[in-house]
From TrEMBL:
Residue ranges occupied by any ABC transporter domain in the UniProt entry: 411-650
GO annotation (BP), single: oligopeptide export from mitochondrion
Parts forming coiled coils: none
Keyword tags: ATP-binding, Membrane, Nucleotide-binding, Transmembrane, Transmembrane helix, Transport
Keyword Transport: yes
Designated name of the protein: Uncharacterized protein
Membrane-related topology note: Multi-pass membrane protein
GO molecular function terms attached to this record: ABC-type oligopeptide transporter activity; ATP binding; ATP hydrolysis activity
Organism from which the protein derives: Cylicocyclus nassatus
InterPro entries recorded: AAA+_ATPase (IPR003593), ABC1_TM_dom (IPR011527), ABC1_TM_sf (IPR036640), ABC_transporter-like_ATP-bd (IPR003439), ABC_transporter-like_CS (IPR017871), P-loop_NTPase (IPR027417), Type_1_exporter (IPR039421)
Length: 681
């Protein structure tokens, strides 16, 4: 049957591209399959798939191996002189220890009168042997020189490796931090942290100490091999048989090692992700009594690591066992054959001793080279993930463009359509404007896209259709970093960092050193935070704990408001700033917000679910089912009631406006505040 080959991209079924080869008798029947709904199409394909083309990915990975290897060694480029110095010390130590067996062999022959060299047959190694025989302290000095060279080599390569690791971690971290928010929607933070910690360490080792060990093993192997040939060409014939076995072992187990390394990195990243996510949400885990469940989930991830590690250990053990077996067989054969040569007068005891030592050196070097090969495979496996992160280009650049920060006329959403990655469209055709210097409130039911408006305005995402205009400039043409510096944002769940109150308030300021203590106090006063800050013995220097765990929800929210105000932003976004607070905290935060809004000349966008937060708005935009249902002032929306048919959510909103629950809500909050205060007396 003929085969139809095509590429499918299911954004809501499978996140990756599947290269499918489907056997079908005719093209029309294949076309009829493509008319099915996505899920039905996926199920049909799953029953008819003959092969899923992973060959392209395999070829790409194979071709990328040498490219990645080159990229790994390129990381050591800035520290090449340090590495060259380490390799120079390697040359000194290797020369000392390669010459030692030859000299010791001559020393052995010197004690045998029958084998002692006759006058005129002396060579350099014999003269050195006689010198060391008469001056044993000199031999100790030479060996100490070799040991010192080893120590210097290890220091140079170790420090070079750590510098490479530091550079790689900084580059990858910087690259990750430059990614757009959609990148973090698709990638788990725990896995990224694993790349920065574990994978960077593996890659750094592969180009530092591992490179040094590999160079030492190669130099020792070549030197020992050459001296073995020089010592006894006849005995070298035995060693020739061993070489093909070792090369074949390298080829087989090297591929297995890289395969298991890739799997191991994925498994470790998955375990780190589970640990990071659960530990950061330990309060939720504790409240829901989910400790055993999470322990079991983490144990399952650890078991996956164990399964891969078991296979990796089996492969590595088989490889080392093969080397040991081959080595002992070769050494036993050398001793047997060498003894026959001695009995025939074709070899001396010293030469056999030297040859055996060189054979041991050569065998251990081959074993070290296998370790070097394994670590290189590990480095390739780890680097592919790191380089993927490092080379990923963000769809929204971090900076670059027109430095426009002041809104002179209005911010306009023009026929904007938007969908989060892998989800159905949230907006279809949104159009409204946010007048400069005015307060605009966006309201609607949960899931209507209120917070998405703020995300689009901050350019955390780009619309899939339409545009957002800042006066007469498209937001895509504006420098993103410069634009965001003009905006102060207070979210529903404020994020504080594990540092002092002062540093949290100053976080986000372009030049925090230029902001005075008086400005910090003014921002804390406007946010109604100065009261509880003064109750702390250390004041603004009080540590807030991880994610602000030492503060209450209302306190964190007021610190977030102070952080938004201290830079005096031209645009202020309040994204459901009181929706997650208790009555008392909400009352205190609302006092701060009302004080701010009444005296504000900024362009303000309020994202609200409760009507009590929007009574100061000059304009209210009602979102409903992916479009703007209504917009206008509070009074204008009241007059619209009954004049046109509204959706259920819009009717509920209008009814709530008529009841004027804003005043009722504030009265209730005030009473709750009084009663809470009285209950503590």
């Amino acid at each position: 049957m003929p085969k139809l080959e095509f590429v499918l991209n299911f954004s809501d079924v499978r996140s990756s591209r599947l290269f499918c080869t489907i056997t079908r008798p005719s093209l029309p029947q294949s076309k009829s399959i493509l008319r099915l709904p996505r899920v039905a199409l996926w199920n049909t394909l799953r029953r008819n798939v003959v092969t899923v083309e992973t060959k392209r990915a395999s070829v790409k990975l194979k071709n990328a191996s040498w490219k990645d290897l080159k990229a790994i060694f390129a990381l050591a480029g800035p520290y090449k002189w340090r590495i060259m110095l380490g390799l120079s010390f390697l040359g000194i130590s290797s020369s000392v220890f390669l010459l030692t067996p030859r000299v010791l062999g001559k020393l052995i022959d010197e004690f045998d009168d029958e084998r002692r060299a006759k006058p005129g047959e002396e060579d350099l190694t014999l003269r050195l042997a006689r010198f060391f025989k008469d001056n044993p302290i000199a031999l100790v000095g030479v060996l100490f020189l070799g040991a010192a060279a080893i120590a210097a080599r290890v220091y140079c390569m170790h420090t070079a490796g750590q510098l490479v690791i530091n550079d790689l971690r900084k580059k990858v971290f910087n690259a990750v931090l430059r990614q757009d928010i959609a990148f973090f929607d698709k990638n788990k933070v725990g896995e990224i942290v694993s790349r920065l910690s574990t994978d960077a360490l593996i890659v750094g080792y592969s180009v530092s100490m591992n490179l040094s060990d590999g160079a030492r093993a190669l130099l020792t192997c070549l030197g020992s091999g050459g001296l073995m040939v020089y010592t006894s060409p006849a005995l070298c014939q035995v060693m020739v048989v061993v070489i093909p076995i070792i090369v074949g072992t390298f080829a087989v187990f090297g591929k297995l090692q890289r395969k298991y390394t890739l799997q191991m990195q994925e498994a470790v990243a998955g375990a780190n992700q589970v640990a990071t996510e659960r530990l950061s949400s330990v309060r939720t885990v504790r409240m829901l009594v989910a400790e055993r469940k999470e322990m079991a989930a983490y144990a399952s991830k650890i078991f996956d690591i164990w399964q891969i590690s078991r296979k990796e250990g089996l492969a590595r053990g088989s490889m080392y066992g093969s080397f040991q077996f081959t080595g002992y067989i070769a050494l036993s054969t050398v001793l047997y054959y060498g003894s026959n040569l001695i009995s025939q007068g074709l070899l001396t005891y010293g030469d056999l001793s030297s040859f055996c030592l060189y054979a041991v050196f050569c065998a251990s070097s081959l074993s070290s080279m296998s370790g070097f090969f394994i670590e290189i495979m590990k480095g390739l496996g780890a680097s592919s993930r790191l380089f993927e992160l490092r080379n990923t280009k963000p769809q929204i650049p971090l900076e670059g463009g027109i430095k426009k920060g002041n809104v002179e006329e209005a911010i306009r959403f023009e026929r904007v359509a938007f969908a989060y990655p892998g989800r159905d469209p949230l907006f279809h055709n949104i159009s409204f404007e946010i007048p400069a210097g005015r307060i605009t409130a966006v309201v609607g039911s949960s899931g209507s896209g209120k917070s998405t408006i703020a995300n689009l305005l901050l350019r955390l995402y780009d619309p899939i259709k339409g545009r957002i205009m800042i006066d007469d400039v498209d937001l895509k043409q504006v420098d993103p970093s410069y634009w965001r510096r003009q905006i102060g944002t207070v979210g529903q769940e404020p994020i504080l960092f594990s540092t002092t109150l002062r540093e949290n308030i100053l976080y986000g300021a372009e030049h925090p050193e230029k902001i005075t203590d008086a400005q910090i106090e003014e921002a804390a006063t406007q946010s109604n935070a100065i009261g509880f800050i003064k109750t702390f013995p250390l004041g603004f220097d009080t540590m807030v704990g991880e994610q602000g765990s030492m503060l209450s929800g209302g306190q964190k929210q007021r610190i977030a408001i102070a952080r938004a105000l201290v830079t005096n932003p031209r645009i202020l976004i309040l994204d459901e700033a009181t929706s997650a607070l208790d009555a008392t905290s909400e009352y205190l935060v609302r006092i701060a917000l009302n004080r701010l809004l009444e005296n504000s000349h900024q362009t303000v966008l309020i994202i609200a679910h409760r009507l009590s937060t929007i009574k100061h708005a000059d304009q209210i935009v009602v979102l409903d089912k992916g479009s703007v249902a209504e917009h206008g002032s509070f009074d204008e929306l009241m007059r619209l009631l009954g004049k046109r048919s509204l959706t259920e959510d819009a009717l509920l909103f209008s009814y709530t406006l008529r009841m004027n629950l804003a005043q009722v809500s504030e009265f209730y909050l005030f009473c709750s505040f009084i009663f809470d205060g009285m209950s503590q007396i």
